[in-house]
């Protein structure tokens, strides 16, 4: 039986994370990509998306940060779209669907105020933000290693980052993630 495009994309992202050239090693696959995909699926179900929309969301969720893995964070949403297009063309994915995936990747970043024009784009952006509420250790790791914080300033930086993520979520995403948000607020006070 032939593998689905979704499964082949998942394998591609995992292989990119395993490469010695991966900007962040393998950890993002387990601690970021998988949670993003899981939240994207939850939101897709809650919003009653069609099977085609669900496929676009899942593929986009797998590919949303591939640019970070390959070249680093700067412009990763743009580079990620280019990588996604190349990979999906290799898999003979329809061009009109590739364009939708690219828009999801381009508009997933909460730190860039891009207008999300489709429900698929909003879901991928929400799922990306929601994954932060599952990965407190990763957020602290970034604060210590990549941002140079000490314990006191890291706690503030992490709390502020989660606040920014929270404020940009759609109402359905807020509903799903609220228990974790509340727990983290208690921990980080």
CATH fold node name: Hypothetical protein af1432
Structural domain count = 1
Distance between the termini: 52 Å
Question: Count of helical segments?
Answer: 10
Order of helices and strands: HHHHHHHHHH
> Whole-number radius of gyration?
16 Å
Which ranges are low-confidence, i.e. pLDDT below 50, for 5 or more consecutive residues?
A: none
Structural class label: mainly alpha
CATH superfamily: Hypothetical protein af1432
Helix share bin? over 70%
Mean pLDDT: 92
Shape: globular
Strand content: under 5%
CATH class identity = Mainly Alpha
CATH architecture: Orthogonal Bundle
Work out the number of β strands: 0
Instruction: Let me know the largest β-sheet.
Output: none
Can you describe this structure?
- The chain is an all-alpha fold and 189 residues long.
- It has a single domain, classed as Hypothetical protein af1432 (Orthogonal Bundle).
- Helices cover 74% and strands 0% of the residues.
- It contains ten helices and no strands.
- The termini are far apart.
- The mean pLDDT is 92.
């Amino acid at each position: 039986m032939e593998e689905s495009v979704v499964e082949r994309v998942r394998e591609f992202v995992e292989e990119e994370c395993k490469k010695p050239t991966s900007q962040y090693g393998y950890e993002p696959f387990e601690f970021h990509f998988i949670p993003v995909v899981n939240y994207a699926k939850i939101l897709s179900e809650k919003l009653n998306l069609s099977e085609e929309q669900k496929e676009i969301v899942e593929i986009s969720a797998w590919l949303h940060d591939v640019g970070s893995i390959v070249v680093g964070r700067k412009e990763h949403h743009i580079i990620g779209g280019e990588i996604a297009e190349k990979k999906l063309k290799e898999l003979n994915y329809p061009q009109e669907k590739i364009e939708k995936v690219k828009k999801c990747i381009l508009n997933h970043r909460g730190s860039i105020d891009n207008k999300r024009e489709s429900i698929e784009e909003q879901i991928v952006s929400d799922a990306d933000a929601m994954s932060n509420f599952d990965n407190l250790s990763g957020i602290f790791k970034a604060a210590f290693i990549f941002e140079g914080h000490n314990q006191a300033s890291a706690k503030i930086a992490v709390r502020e980052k989660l606040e920014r993520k929270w404020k940009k979520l759609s109402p359905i995403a807020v509903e799903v993630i609220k228990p974790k948000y509340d727990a983290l607020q208690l921990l980080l006070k």
